[in-house]
Amino acid sequence: MFENDLAATISDDLALVFSTLLKDPDAEQPANLRVVYKAMRKGLVAKLIADGNLDPEAEDDLLEEMQDLIEEHGGDTLAQDFVRSRVSAALEIVIQAALDGDAGVQVATLGELREAVAQGLVAHLVGMGEIDADEDETLAAEIQSLVDEHGEDTPVEDLLP
Question: What is the number of other CB atoms lying within 10 angstroms of the CB of residue 67?
């Protein structure tokens, strides 16, 4: 788990704002708290409200929450530090099996997990009845997405709840 779990310190609505900005290839970089606050003031929250992703009453509370975060952590703190990737239940099983050394494979990073899956870890877990046979392609795509977002050196245990 995260040593200092900043992701647990923000509201779900603010986590959505952070995730939206972090996935935007046109967003100002680095996406620190100051950049997020600026994007929020320039319409990011309004867009999320218009798209039906946030409650129309949320904007003032979110801006206040951001101001508090900047005051507490500083404007240069990266937004990524406050966002935890959520993994599927099937991927949680695969990660735990990989951490425990099931099937003779023990991994520590996303890159190693991707390789273990390519070498048959999922098939082993399917054979043990731990996950469904149709999960293989979905898991490979989910792992690749995590690698693309966080890098292959990211510790897999950081992705567990």
Answer: 12
Q: Where are the domains of the chain?
A: 6-82, 89-159
Q: Tell me how crowded residue 51 is: count the other CB atoms within 10 A of its CB.
A: 9
Please report, for the chain, how many H helices and E strands are present, in that order: 8, 0
Per-residue pLDDT of 116-155, as tens digits, reads: 999 889 989 999 999 988 888 889 888 988 888 778 998 8
pLDDT in tens, 75-108: 999 888 887 666 888 999 999 988 888 767 778 8
Q: Rounded to an integer, what distance in angstroms lies between the CA atom of residue 42 and that of residue 35?
A: 10
- With both helix axes pointing from N to C terminus, report the angle between 136-150 and 110-118 in degrees, rounded to the nearest 10: 160
Strand intervals (E) in the chain: none
pTM: 0.56
